Amino acid sequence: MSVIGFGAMTLAPGIYADVTEDQAAATLAAAVDAGVTFIDTADIYGDGHSERLIGRVLAGRRDEIVLATKFGGNQDERGVLVRGLGRPGHVRTALEASLTRLGTDHVDLYYLHRLDPTTPIEDTVGALAEQVAAGKIGHIGLSEVSARTLRRAHAVHPITAVQTEYSLFSRDPEDEILAACAELGVGFVAYSPLGRGLIGGAVRSAADFGGADWRRGNPRFQGGNLGRNVSLADAVATLADQYGVTSAQLALAWLLRRGAFPIPGTRRVANVRANAAAADLDLPDAVFERLEILVPRGAVAGAQADETYMANIDR
């Protein structure tokens, strides 16, 4: 698979800014045309909209891509994770629904989106392993789990990938999970690798958000925190410009050096092509050393997300 993937959450309505069906389809096709073969989605993105779009747009190109989707991330109206979604019965039901929307008989990588606190991870992974044996799943993944949970899961069936938010602006994976993945031979997939639009320069002020934009409630995008973080992003952009690359490309190259597989999302064809080109950059060590000085761990203002969101994450 390509070392830089495509995160298809941005192609679903009601999460960030609005996106038209034609715009989403063009961006998705452009990603594959640019050599991006790893496409990542989930059943909750637009209540299945992202999966249906992928199934329609890439119907004739299924063999060109490594297709990943997720289940078990549904939340109630308060943003609290729905309980019981890791139960074996739900694993089978959710998988069949995703396969139907995607228009395929198998997914290459199937993630548990969030750990179900009411179901032992061993039971969930056991049910996923049955679907591997049935040929409906190629590999098993977990999202936002602790190193402890990963080890328990891996003892039942090999886990191929762990997906966690990781970027210059979100460094928590450096505490434990990156080392655990390296120890077990598990791939690490970095979602929101551009700081949810901060690093790439898409966000300059609260005026850049649409009415339904999820980031309005994120501490990093509020008040003085936003101004501080935009200043950090400007410093990254200045450094990137000195080397003839975009700040997004520099941030993605930083992740690649750390052994992560970033999956940036975008609604724009030009951005998806530029992001894909980051895989071929050959930058000197000095640029990354300078980057660490400009944006040291802990420099970002504001929590990664609000308390309700963080409560859904296994730590």
Automatic annotation (TrEMBL):
Residues 4-294 form the NADP-dependent oxidoreductase domain. Pfam families: Aldo_ket_red. InterPro entries: AKR, Aldo-Keto_reductase, NAD(P)_OxRdtase_dom_sf, NADP_OxRdtase_dom. It comes from Actinomadura miaoliensis. Keywords: Oxidoreductase. This is Aldo/keto reductase. Coiled coil: none annotated. Gene3D superfamilies: NADP-dependent oxidoreductase domain. It comes from the Bacteria.
